[in-house]
Protein backbone atom coordinates (compact mmCIF):
# COMPACT_ATOMS: atom_id res chain seq x y z
CA UNK A 1 0.00 0.00 0.00
CA UNK A 2 2.86 2.40 0.83
CA UNK A 3 4.52 1.90 -2.56
CA UNK A 4 1.17 2.19 -4.29
CA UNK A 5 0.42 5.54 -2.64
CA UNK A 6 3.83 6.99 -3.54
CA UNK A 7 3.01 6.96 -7.23
CA UNK A 8 2.24 10.33 -8.74
CA UNK A 9 -0.86 9.11 -10.54
CA UNK A 10 -2.53 7.78 -7.41
CA UNK A 11 -3.24 9.10 -3.96
CA UNK A 12 -4.89 7.67 -0.89
CA UNK A 13 -8.33 8.76 -2.04
CA UNK A 14 -7.93 6.92 -5.34
CA UNK A 15 -6.68 3.85 -3.49
CA UNK A 16 -9.68 3.68 -1.17
CA UNK A 17 -12.03 4.38 -4.06
CA UNK A 18 -10.52 1.42 -5.89
CA UNK A 19 -10.90 -0.82 -2.85
CA UNK A 20 -14.50 0.30 -2.31
CA UNK A 21 -15.26 -0.30 -5.97
CA UNK A 22 -13.93 -3.87 -5.78
CA UNK A 23 -15.93 -4.56 -2.63
CA UNK A 24 -19.10 -3.11 -4.17
CA UNK A 25 -18.60 -5.11 -7.37
CA UNK A 26 -18.17 -8.35 -5.42
CA UNK A 27 -21.25 -7.55 -3.33
CA UNK A 28 -23.36 -6.87 -6.42
CA UNK A 29 -22.18 -10.14 -7.95
CA UNK A 30 -23.03 -12.04 -4.76
CA UNK A 31 -26.44 -10.37 -4.46
CA UNK A 32 -27.19 -11.17 -8.08
CA UNK A 33 -26.43 -14.84 -7.46
CA UNK A 34 -28.42 -15.03 -4.22
CA UNK A 35 -31.45 -13.06 -5.34
CA UNK A 36 -32.03 -14.75 -8.70
CA UNK A 37 -33.56 -18.13 -7.96
CA UNK A 38 -33.24 -19.07 -11.64
CA UNK A 39 -29.46 -18.64 -11.60
CA UNK A 40 -27.51 -21.89 -11.76
CA UNK A 41 -24.30 -22.11 -9.75
CA UNK A 42 -21.64 -23.04 -12.32
CA UNK A 43 -18.12 -24.37 -11.93
CA UNK A 44 -15.56 -24.70 -14.66
CA UNK A 45 -14.60 -28.21 -13.57
CA UNK A 46 -17.30 -30.87 -13.81
CA UNK A 47 -15.71 -33.15 -11.22
CA UNK A 48 -15.05 -33.03 -7.48
CA UNK A 49 -12.45 -34.55 -5.18
CA UNK A 50 -14.20 -36.56 -2.46
CA UNK A 51 -12.25 -36.34 0.78
CA UNK A 52 -13.49 -37.43 4.19
CA UNK A 53 -10.79 -36.01 6.40
CA UNK A 54 -8.31 -33.17 6.88
CA UNK A 55 -4.81 -33.41 5.47
CA UNK A 56 -1.90 -31.02 5.00
CA UNK A 57 -3.12 -30.31 1.49
CA UNK A 58 -6.86 -30.17 2.19
CA UNK A 59 -8.84 -29.07 5.21
CA UNK A 60 -12.38 -30.02 6.10
CA UNK A 61 -14.76 -32.38 4.38
CA UNK A 62 -16.49 -32.64 1.04
CA UNK A 63 -20.26 -32.25 1.49
CA UNK A 64 -23.25 -33.42 -0.51
CA UNK A 65 -24.09 -29.79 -1.29
CA UNK A 66 -20.64 -29.19 -2.79
CA UNK A 67 -20.95 -32.27 -4.98
CA UNK A 68 -24.43 -31.23 -6.09
CA UNK A 69 -23.11 -27.79 -7.09
CA UNK A 70 -20.01 -29.03 -8.87
CA UNK A 71 -21.36 -31.96 -10.88
CA UNK A 72 -23.15 -31.10 -14.12
CA UNK A 73 -26.70 -32.23 -13.34
CA UNK A 74 -28.30 -29.56 -15.56
CA UNK A 75 -26.74 -31.11 -18.65
CA UNK A 76 -27.22 -34.67 -17.36
CA UNK A 77 -31.03 -34.43 -17.42
CA UNK A 78 -30.87 -33.70 -21.15
CA UNK A 79 -29.11 -37.03 -21.72
CA UNK A 80 -31.58 -39.93 -21.89
CA UNK A 81 -28.93 -42.30 -20.47
CA UNK A 82 -28.54 -40.17 -17.33
CA UNK A 83 -32.09 -38.88 -16.87
CA UNK A 84 -33.41 -41.71 -14.68
CA UNK A 85 -30.23 -41.63 -12.61
CA UNK A 86 -30.63 -37.93 -11.81
CA UNK A 87 -34.35 -38.32 -11.04
CA UNK A 88 -33.63 -41.18 -8.62
CA UNK A 89 -30.93 -39.07 -6.96
CA UNK A 90 -33.34 -36.14 -6.59
CA UNK A 91 -35.87 -38.48 -5.00
CA UNK A 92 -33.38 -39.85 -2.46
CA UNK A 93 -32.30 -36.32 -1.53
CA UNK A 94 -35.94 -35.28 -1.12
CA UNK A 95 -36.59 -38.20 1.24
CA UNK A 96 -33.81 -37.63 3.76
CA UNK A 97 -30.97 -35.37 2.62
CA UNK A 98 -32.64 -32.06 1.74
CA UNK A 99 -31.62 -30.38 5.00
CA UNK A 100 -27.97 -31.32 4.45
CA UNK A 101 -27.77 -29.13 1.33
CA UNK A 102 -26.47 -25.59 1.55
CA UNK A 103 -28.64 -22.64 0.50
CA UNK A 104 -27.06 -22.49 -2.97
CA UNK A 105 -27.38 -26.26 -3.38
CA UNK A 106 -31.06 -26.10 -2.44
CA UNK A 107 -31.63 -23.42 -5.09
CA UNK A 108 -29.81 -25.57 -7.63
CA UNK A 109 -31.95 -28.52 -6.59
CA UNK A 110 -35.18 -26.61 -7.28
CA UNK A 111 -33.82 -25.20 -10.56
CA UNK A 112 -32.85 -28.66 -11.81
CA UNK A 113 -36.23 -30.01 -10.70
CA UNK A 114 -37.99 -27.30 -12.71
CA UNK A 115 -35.93 -28.19 -15.78
CA UNK A 116 -36.88 -31.85 -15.31
CA UNK A 117 -40.59 -30.95 -15.18
CA UNK A 118 -40.31 -28.75 -18.27
CA UNK A 119 -38.55 -31.53 -20.17
CA UNK A 120 -41.29 -34.01 -19.27
CA UNK A 121 -44.01 -31.55 -20.32
CA UNK A 122 -42.30 -31.06 -23.67
CA UNK A 123 -41.49 -34.66 -24.65
CA UNK A 124 -44.39 -36.29 -22.68
CA UNK A 125 -42.20 -39.08 -21.31
CA UNK A 126 -41.54 -40.36 -17.76
CA UNK A 127 -44.68 -38.64 -16.45
CA UNK A 128 -45.36 -41.15 -13.67
CA UNK A 129 -41.72 -41.05 -12.57
CA UNK A 130 -41.80 -37.27 -12.06
CA UNK A 131 -45.20 -37.37 -10.37
CA UNK A 132 -43.77 -39.71 -7.75
CA UNK A 133 -40.72 -37.45 -7.31
CA UNK A 134 -42.86 -34.33 -6.79
CA UNK A 135 -45.13 -36.12 -4.33
CA UNK A 136 -42.13 -37.35 -2.33
CA UNK A 137 -40.62 -33.87 -2.21
CA UNK A 138 -43.91 -32.20 -1.24
CA UNK A 139 -44.49 -34.70 1.58
CA UNK A 140 -40.98 -34.11 2.93
CA UNK A 141 -41.36 -30.33 2.76
CA UNK A 142 -44.68 -30.45 4.62
CA UNK A 143 -42.89 -32.21 7.47
CA UNK A 144 -39.87 -29.89 7.42
CA UNK A 145 -41.89 -26.65 7.27
CA UNK A 146 -43.72 -27.64 10.44
CA UNK A 147 -40.35 -27.83 12.18
CA UNK A 148 -39.07 -24.53 10.80
CA UNK A 149 -38.49 -23.19 14.31
CA UNK A 150 -35.76 -25.76 14.76
CA UNK A 151 -33.77 -24.37 11.81
CA UNK A 152 -34.05 -27.49 9.70
CA UNK A 153 -34.41 -25.50 6.45
CA UNK A 154 -32.12 -22.81 5.07
CA UNK A 155 -33.92 -19.61 4.15
CA UNK A 156 -37.12 -17.77 4.91
CA UNK A 157 -40.30 -19.75 5.50
CA UNK A 158 -42.14 -17.69 2.86
CA UNK A 159 -39.60 -18.80 0.26
CA UNK A 160 -40.28 -22.46 1.04
CA UNK A 161 -44.03 -21.92 0.96
CA UNK A 162 -43.58 -20.39 -2.50
CA UNK A 163 -41.57 -23.43 -3.59
CA UNK A 164 -44.28 -25.75 -2.31
CA UNK A 165 -46.82 -23.78 -4.34
CA UNK A 166 -44.59 -24.28 -7.39
CA UNK A 167 -44.57 -28.03 -6.75
CA UNK A 168 -48.37 -28.07 -6.61
CA UNK A 169 -48.48 -26.10 -9.87
CA UNK A 170 -46.12 -28.61 -11.54
CA UNK A 171 -48.26 -31.49 -10.31
CA UNK A 172 -51.34 -29.85 -11.81
CA UNK A 173 -49.54 -29.38 -15.14
CA UNK A 174 -48.58 -33.06 -15.21
CA UNK A 175 -52.14 -34.10 -14.37
CA UNK A 176 -53.51 -31.96 -17.22
CA UNK A 177 -51.04 -33.20 -19.82
CA UNK A 178 -52.64 -34.60 -22.97
CA UNK A 179 -50.67 -37.18 -24.91
CA UNK A 180 -50.69 -36.15 -28.56
CA UNK A 181 -50.77 -38.75 -31.30
CA UNK A 182 -47.73 -38.61 -33.61
CA UNK A 183 -48.33 -37.38 -37.13
CA UNK A 184 -46.32 -40.28 -38.56
CA UNK A 185 -48.62 -42.94 -40.07
CA UNK A 186 -46.06 -45.71 -40.58
CA UNK A 187 -45.70 -49.09 -38.88
CA UNK A 188 -47.08 -49.19 -35.34
CA UNK A 189 -46.26 -51.49 -32.44
CA UNK A 190 -49.30 -53.69 -33.06
CA UNK A 191 -48.27 -54.16 -36.71
CA UNK A 192 -45.19 -56.08 -35.62
CA UNK A 193 -45.19 -59.89 -35.37
CA UNK A 194 -46.22 -61.25 -31.97
CA UNK A 195 -42.73 -62.59 -31.27
CA UNK A 196 -41.26 -59.09 -31.75
CA UNK A 197 -43.95 -57.53 -29.58
CA UNK A 198 -43.13 -59.97 -26.77
CA UNK A 199 -39.42 -59.35 -27.26
CA UNK A 200 -39.93 -55.60 -26.82
CA UNK A 201 -42.21 -56.07 -23.82
CA UNK A 202 -39.52 -58.15 -22.13
CA UNK A 203 -37.30 -55.04 -22.16
CA UNK A 204 -39.70 -53.19 -19.82
CA UNK A 205 -38.39 -53.25 -16.26
CA UNK A 206 -41.50 -51.89 -14.52
CA UNK A 207 -44.61 -54.02 -14.20
CA UNK A 208 -46.80 -50.93 -14.24
CA UNK A 209 -45.62 -50.22 -17.77
CA UNK A 210 -46.76 -53.69 -18.82
CA UNK A 211 -50.18 -53.09 -17.30
CA UNK A 212 -50.48 -49.72 -19.06
CA UNK A 213 -49.41 -51.24 -22.37
CA UNK A 214 -52.04 -53.94 -22.00
CA UNK A 215 -54.75 -51.30 -21.75
CA UNK A 216 -53.98 -49.92 -25.22
CA UNK A 217 -55.55 -52.71 -27.26
CA UNK A 218 -57.23 -56.09 -26.66
CA UNK A 219 -54.39 -57.98 -28.37
CA UNK A 220 -51.83 -56.29 -26.15
CA UNK A 221 -53.95 -57.15 -23.12
CA UNK A 222 -53.51 -60.84 -23.91
CA UNK A 223 -49.75 -60.48 -24.37
CA UNK A 224 -49.34 -58.46 -21.17
CA UNK A 225 -50.80 -61.38 -19.18
CA UNK A 226 -48.17 -63.82 -20.43
CA UNK A 227 -46.90 -65.85 -17.44
CA UNK A 228 -43.36 -66.16 -18.81
CA UNK A 229 -43.19 -62.37 -19.18
CA UNK A 230 -43.99 -61.80 -15.50
CA UNK A 231 -41.76 -64.69 -14.42
CA UNK A 232 -38.73 -63.10 -16.12
CA UNK A 233 -39.64 -59.76 -14.56
CA UNK A 234 -39.70 -61.31 -11.07
CA UNK A 235 -36.40 -63.12 -11.65
CA UNK A 236 -34.79 -59.93 -12.93
CA UNK A 237 -35.61 -57.85 -9.85
CA UNK A 238 -35.58 -60.39 -7.03
CA UNK A 239 -33.53 -63.33 -5.79
CA UNK A 240 -34.76 -66.92 -5.72
CA UNK A 241 -34.92 -66.79 -1.94
CA UNK A 242 -37.14 -63.70 -1.99
CA UNK A 243 -39.42 -65.30 -4.59
CA UNK A 244 -39.77 -68.53 -2.59
CA UNK A 245 -40.96 -66.53 0.42
CA UNK A 246 -43.79 -64.88 -1.56
CA UNK A 247 -45.26 -67.70 -3.60
CA UNK A 248 -48.86 -67.20 -4.77
CA UNK A 249 -50.89 -69.88 -6.54
CA UNK A 250 -53.64 -69.18 -9.03
CA UNK A 251 -57.02 -70.94 -9.15
CA UNK A 252 -55.51 -73.47 -11.57
CA UNK A 253 -52.75 -74.36 -9.12
CA UNK A 254 -50.02 -72.52 -11.07
CA UNK A 255 -47.72 -69.79 -9.80
CA UNK A 256 -49.32 -66.39 -10.35
CA UNK A 257 -46.21 -64.45 -11.34
CA UNK A 258 -48.07 -61.19 -11.89
CA UNK A 259 -49.51 -61.08 -8.36
CA UNK A 260 -46.17 -62.24 -6.98
CA UNK A 261 -44.40 -59.32 -8.69
CA UNK A 262 -46.62 -56.67 -7.14
CA UNK A 263 -46.35 -58.37 -3.76
CA UNK A 264 -42.56 -58.55 -4.02
CA UNK A 265 -42.14 -54.85 -4.86
CA UNK A 266 -43.98 -53.99 -1.63
CA UNK A 267 -41.54 -56.09 0.38
CA UNK A 268 -38.17 -55.68 -1.36
CA UNK A 269 -36.42 -52.98 -3.40
CA UNK A 270 -36.33 -53.50 -7.15
CA UNK A 271 -33.12 -53.83 -9.10
CA UNK A 272 -31.91 -50.50 -10.45
CA UNK A 273 -30.34 -50.19 -13.88
CA UNK A 274 -29.08 -47.00 -15.55
CA UNK A 275 -27.61 -46.23 -18.92
CA UNK A 276 -24.93 -43.97 -17.46
CA UNK A 277 -23.84 -43.32 -13.88
CA UNK A 278 -21.44 -41.23 -11.86
CA UNK A 279 -17.95 -42.72 -11.61
CA UNK A 280 -15.60 -42.71 -8.62
CA UNK A 281 -11.90 -43.05 -9.38
CA UNK A 282 -10.34 -45.37 -6.78
CA UNK A 283 -6.89 -43.98 -7.52
CA UNK A 284 -7.45 -40.23 -7.05
CA UNK A 285 -10.90 -40.25 -5.31
CA UNK A 286 -12.43 -37.94 -7.92
CA UNK A 287 -16.15 -38.13 -8.65
CA UNK A 288 -17.36 -37.33 -12.17
CA UNK A 289 -19.64 -38.45 -14.98
CA UNK A 290 -18.37 -41.14 -17.31
CA UNK A 291 -16.31 -39.61 -20.09
CA UNK A 292 -15.45 -36.46 -18.12
CA UNK A 293 -11.73 -35.68 -18.06
CA UNK A 294 -10.20 -35.29 -14.62
CA UNK A 295 -6.57 -34.90 -13.45
CA UNK A 296 -5.86 -38.58 -12.73
CA UNK A 297 -2.24 -39.75 -12.34
CA UNK A 298 -3.01 -43.44 -12.90
CA UNK A 299 -1.46 -45.15 -15.92
CA UNK A 300 -4.89 -46.40 -17.05
CA UNK A 301 -7.62 -44.25 -15.46
CA UNK A 302 -10.47 -46.21 -17.04
CA UNK A 303 -9.63 -49.33 -15.01
CA UNK A 304 -9.76 -47.33 -11.76
CA UNK A 305 -13.34 -46.07 -12.19
CA UNK A 306 -16.21 -47.60 -10.23
CA UNK A 307 -19.87 -46.97 -11.08
CA UNK A 308 -21.99 -45.62 -8.23
CA UNK A 309 -25.71 -46.08 -7.75
CA UNK A 310 -27.67 -43.02 -6.51
CA UNK A 311 -27.73 -44.47 -2.98
CA UNK A 312 -23.98 -45.17 -3.06
CA UNK A 313 -23.41 -41.58 -4.19
CA UNK A 314 -25.28 -40.24 -1.15
CA UNK A 315 -23.50 -42.68 1.15
CA UNK A 316 -20.18 -41.10 0.19
CA UNK A 317 -21.13 -38.00 2.17
CA UNK A 318 -22.34 -39.65 5.36
CA UNK A 319 -19.73 -39.17 8.05
TrEMBL record:
<dbReference type="GO" id="GO:0005737">
    <property type="term" value="C:cytoplasm"/>
</dbReference>
<dbReference type="GO" id="GO:0016567">
    <property type="term" value="P:protein ubiquitination"/>
</dbReference>
<comment type="pathway">
    <text>Protein modification; protein ubiquitination.</text>
</comment>
<dbReference type="InterPro" id="IPR036047">
    <property type="entry name" value="F-box-like_dom_sf"/>
</dbReference>
<keyword id="KW-0963">Cytoplasm</keyword>
<dbReference type="InterPro" id="IPR040394">
    <property type="entry name" value="FBX25/32"/>
</dbReference>
<dbReference type="GO" id="GO:0005634">
    <property type="term" value="C:nucleus"/>
</dbReference>
<protein>
    <recommendedName>
        <fullName>F-box only protein 32</fullName>
    </recommendedName>
</protein>
<comment type="subunit">
    <text>Part of the SCF (SKP1-CUL1-F-box) E3 ubiquitin-protein ligase complex SCF(FBXO32) formed of CUL1, SKP1, RBX1 and FBXO32.</text>
</comment>
<comment type="function">
    <text>Substrate recognition component of a SCF (SKP1-CUL1-F-box protein) E3 ubiquitin-protein ligase complex which mediates the ubiquitination and subsequent proteasomal degradation of target proteins. Probably recognizes and binds to phosphorylated target proteins during skeletal muscle atrophy. Recognizes TERF1.</text>
</comment>
<keyword id="KW-0833">Ubl conjugation pathway</keyword>
<dbReference type="GO" id="GO:0019005">
    <property type="term" value="C:SCF ubiquitin ligase complex"/>
</dbReference>
<keyword id="KW-0539">Nucleus</keyword>
Amino acid sequence: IHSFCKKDDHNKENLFNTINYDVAAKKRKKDLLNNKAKTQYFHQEKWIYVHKGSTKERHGYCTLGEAFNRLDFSSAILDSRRFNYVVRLLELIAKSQLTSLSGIAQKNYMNILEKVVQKVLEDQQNIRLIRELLQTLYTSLCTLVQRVGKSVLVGNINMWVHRMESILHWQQQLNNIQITMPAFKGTTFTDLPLCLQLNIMQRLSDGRDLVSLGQVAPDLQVLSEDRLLWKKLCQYHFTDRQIRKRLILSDKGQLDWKKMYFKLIRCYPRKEQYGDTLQLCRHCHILSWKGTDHPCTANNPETCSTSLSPQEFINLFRF
